[in-house]
Design brief:
With about 260 residues, the protein is of the alpha/beta class. The protein has nine helices and twelve strands. The strands form three sheets. A six-stranded mixed β-sheet has the order 6-7-8-3-9-10. The protein starts with a strand and ends with a strand.
Length: about 260
């Protein structure tokens, strides 16, 4: 689905990331990890067409993505930011319906089909009860679920999420990621960034680990998220442990250790 090869991205001809290559297929989740300043957001901006590649190529479904219009790109790729503020008191239903913008002609109004898709997105995430509530009055977890619903209404093939759980409590972090992974199981490709390596162990098929030195390691969570790699990238002592209580014997997680 998404193929990135030899990508160099940055600002004003100043590279931030070099020689980035990876592939994400439908029904797969790629988790992007790395400290602040390692280039995660720069990579996302390049994939979304907000920054032109300095070198290399990004292909989607076999086509050069740089040749796509923003409208066509928005029909195939949905983006969920870390947080969203809206200048007006839109209802949840209105916010989700905004996901249909790329499919609606200029000056046209949403069709019954558009409204049906927005309703279906709310139902898939079990948040129909929020439909008439004001978006700005929701909790952080509820707002993130609404943004996921808005993205679903776009009918994308790829979902890009920039630290979607950064402002959420423990339970809402799990809830948002668990719902997104269910969507991936239905055929959507997902790329998300996180500050928590354990999220990759729980929810991702692939992981990309970025260091401030520009080094990139890509592979399965088990092969990339080793104690040595995490120590090198984050500069702290880390323990990768297995959870073995019988029922969850294959789960792994990582914890920082005191010096």
């Amino acid at each position: 689905m998404l193929e990135v090869s030899g990508l160099v991205c940055g600002y004003s001809r100043q590279p931030v990331l070099k020689n980035i290559s990876f592939t994400v297929e439908g029904s797969k989740v790629l988790c992007l990890l790395g400290p602040n300043g390692s280039g995660k957001t720069t990579l996302f901006k390049t994939l979304l067409g907000l920054l032109p590649p300095l070198q290399g190529e990004v292909r989607f479904a076999g086509e050069d993505l740089s040749r796509w219009s923003q409208r066509r790109r928005a029909r195939a790729i949905a983006y969920i930011p870390q947080s969203s503020t809206l200048p007006f008191a839109f209802s949840v239903q209105e916010v989700v319906l905004m996901g249909r913008t790329a499919h609606i002609d200029t000056f046209a109004t949403p069709s019954p089909h558009d409204r049906e898709l927005a309703q279906t997105a709310l139902e898939r995430l079990n948040i129909v009860h929020l439909r008439q509530k004001v978006f700005t009055e929701l909790s952080g977890g509820e707002r993130q679920m609404v943004l996921v619903a808005r993205a679903l209404a776009q009918e994308p093939r790829l979902l890009v999420m920039d630290e979607p759980t950064s402002s959420l409590d423990f339970s809402n972090q799990y809830l948002v990621l668990e719902r997104v992974c269910r969507l991936a199981e239905q055929g959507m490709a997902v790329i998300m960034s996180s500050h928590h390596p354990s999220h990759a162990f729980l929810h991702a098929n692939q992981v990309m680990l970025l260091g401030r030195d520009g080094r990139m390691d890509h592979g399965t969570p088990d092969s990339i998220l080793t104690e040595d790699n995490l120590r090198r990238v984050y500069g702290i002592n880390v323990k990768v442990a297995n959870l073995s209580d019988g029922e969850h014997s294959r789960l792994r997680f990582c914890i920082p250790l005191p010096d």
